[in-house]
Design a protein that fits this description.
Number of helices: 17
CATH superfamily of one domain: Dipeptide-binding Protein, Domain 3
Strand content: 15-25%
Number of strands: 22
Radius of gyration: 23 Å
Distance between the termini: 39 Å
Largest sheet: 7 strands, mixed
Length: 568
């Protein structure tokens, strides 16, 4: 590993280098940290002594151009085709993928979990990680001919923070640190939070500064969360009616449940040639065709599509028999069988703990993902996260489960129902059914209500007991902040614990991975002890792509960024 030089000015980058030297931080984690703090990714890789991945340019988020690449063609992808209403309130990754080549983000986190500049050309953080300054990339054109500026970006951030919008972005660590409690409550009795005055500072036409109430390390990664796409201030829902963006494609056709057709932008709304800021883009069109998860491989096998959104583990043997590329990624994707703590019978922690005690997570893992998977521990930090703290394995104890049920007044047994939408494959139903078979031994009758995935997403935040898939996030702090922090929009369990919030606050601002891991022990343990989720599995994901499709990204969050994909 090389030593820091005068180009490394941020004290936290130097601190991270020292931590690597002491063996308290891995080299790849250093790269992620240094890039989040504003160091160019190539410089971060070089300082860590790791090979530098080829990139188009130091401050661009795309791979380098392939000398063999051929321009033109259409990429056809099998995926659920959904409504494109308001990007700030998207709750499905598929919606974001339909939009991602039209609208862009301030930053982007690649398949290597390293965050790079996108619409923000660069950024820097104060030493205490409470002030972040973003310089907007010059020369970025909107499809209507206007030029992107910091005021337009600030408008987006202010909009996300508005409680009336209901954006999940308010649960991200960055935006949670820009909110404060008011003395008002909503119609459900939840305290309304408002933006702290001065949190967003417009420094000049191309510079934006964020002032946070606490240290947050994950700001650049938060800004790539899929509801953080930057829309033009003229935006009015639905986005599909007037899709103005900065990306290389625009929406040519949308038929929900059928197809979404994207075509290259060649001309701006004011009649001038459109010059895309991100360099060469090879494809002419991207077509998404609607196929349920269990039918996507069939569409691929019949030649109807060139790639699919995801390949189910139960389809692997068929996939291997086809002429294809199979790609994979280890992730923090999971399935939370989550209970609402204010709904009967789950408002009694004895009931929740009885269910928890009746489940054998390792047995479910072996049944669903026999290879390349990690056993869950009923919390939201995965072994792939740098700050993961390994708690003692949860042990099944049917006798203790029965005793808790009896103590809670259910000595004669308990009947409950879990809603399952198979939102990214029938493996979710398999998990629910395995849990059903296990808890039966404790006197619990678990009915599995299988519904269409689109219907599940209509009830995912309201059902008392539901099986919700959460996608990969690069840091363990991120899902905890989005899903379990008190009062945030995506807190589907209604769990609220000041001790949990305080422990998470402490962890979010720590650079030292070992110190952050120690703090995350408390975060994990509080959530596990509260027994608000049964989480048996951290799953790998698989993709299948035609062999003549080049540069297809195997992204752990299943993000589609096809700028450098080509066919030939």
């Amino acid at each position: 590993m090389t030593s820091a030089d005068e180009t490394v000015t941020h004290s936290k980058v130097k601190e991270a280098l020292d931590l690597v030297g002491q063996g308290r931080m891995g080299r790849r984690e250093f790269v992620r940290i240094a890039a989040m703090l504003g160091l160019a990714a190539s410089s971060a890789y070089a300082l860590a002594g790791l090979p530098v991945p080829a990139a188009a340019a130091d401050n661009l988020p795309f791979p380098a151009d392939d000398p063999a690449a051929k321009a033109g063609g259409t990429l056809r992808v099998a995926m659920l085709v959904q409504k494109m209403e308001d990007p700030a309130t998207y709750t499905w990754g598929e919606m974001a993928n339909q939009t991602r080549h039209i609208l862009e983000y301030l930053t982007t986190t690649g398949p290597d979990n390293v965050t790079r500049p996108m619409l923000a050309e660069s950024w820097e953080a104060s030493d205490d990680l409470t002030t972040w300054t973003f310089r907007i990339r010059p020369g970025v054109s909107w499809h209507n001919g206007e030029t992107l500026n910091a005021r337009q970006v600030a408008w987006n951030l202010e909009r996300w923070l508005d409680p009336a919008l209901g954006s999940g972005n308010r649960g991200l660590s960055t935006f949670a640190a820009m909110l404060r409690d008011t003395d008002k409550k909503d119609d459900k009795g939840k305290v309304i939070k408002e933006t702290i005055p001065g949190s967003i500072e417009l420094v000049d036409d191309m510079t934006l500064r964020l002032h946070l109430s606490k240290p947050v390390l994950s700001v650049p990664q938060d800004l790539n969360s899929y509801p953080c796409a930057i829309v033009h201030p003229s935006f009015k829902a639905p986005f599909s009616d007037n899709p103005i963006g900065t990306g290389p494609f625009t929406l040519a056709e949308l038929k929900v449940g059928e197809r979404c057709i994207l075509k290259r932008v060649t001309q701006t709304g004011d009649g001038k040639a459109f010059a895309y800021w991100g360099g060469k883009v090879y494809l002419d069109e991207i077509h998404y065709y609607n196929f349920d998860n269990d039918n996507q491989l069939t569409a691929f096998a019949s030649g109807d599509v060139d790639a699919i959104y995801q390949l189910g583990i139960e389809q692997m043997e068929l996939a291997k028999s086809l002429d294809q590329q199979i790609l994979s990624a280890k992730t923090s994707q999971n399935l939370f069988l989550r209970m609402q703590v204010d709904q009967k019978p789950f408002d009694d922690i004895r009931v929740r703990r009885a269910i928890q005690l009746a489940v054998d997570r390792a047995a479910i893992n072996a049944l669903v993902y026999p290879d390349n998977r990690d056993v869950g521990e009923d919390h939201a930090v995965a072994p792939v996260h740098p700050e993961y703290f390994a708690l003692p394995p949860l042990r099944r104890d049917v006798v203790a489960a029965k005793a808790l049920l009896a103590e809670a007044g259910h000595a004669g047994g308990l009947e409950i129902t879990v809603d399952c939408g198979n939102t990214n494959g029938p493996w979710q139903q398999t998990v629910c059914e395995a849990v059903r078979d296990q808890v039966k031994d404790a006197g619990i009758t678990l009915n599995v209500n299988v519904m269409p995935s689109s219907k599940y997403w209509e009830v995912w935040k309201t059902t008392a007991f539901g099986a919700t898939a959460w996608t990969h996030r690069p840091l363990g702090t991120m899902v905890n902040s989005l899903a379990f922090r008190s009062g945030v929009n995506w807190n589907e369990t209604h769990f609220a614990d000041p001790a949990f919030d305080a422990a998470l606050d402490e962890a979010e601002g720590l650079l030292d991975v070992e110190a952050r891991r120690a703090k995350m022990q408390a975060v994990e343990k509080i959530l596990q002890d509260a027994a608000v989720v049964i989480m048996p599995i951290w799953r790998p994901i698989y993709f299948i792509v035609r062999k003549d499709v080049h540069g297809y990204p195997a992204h752990p969050t299943q993000d589609h960024l096809f700028n450098k994909v080509w066919i030939g």
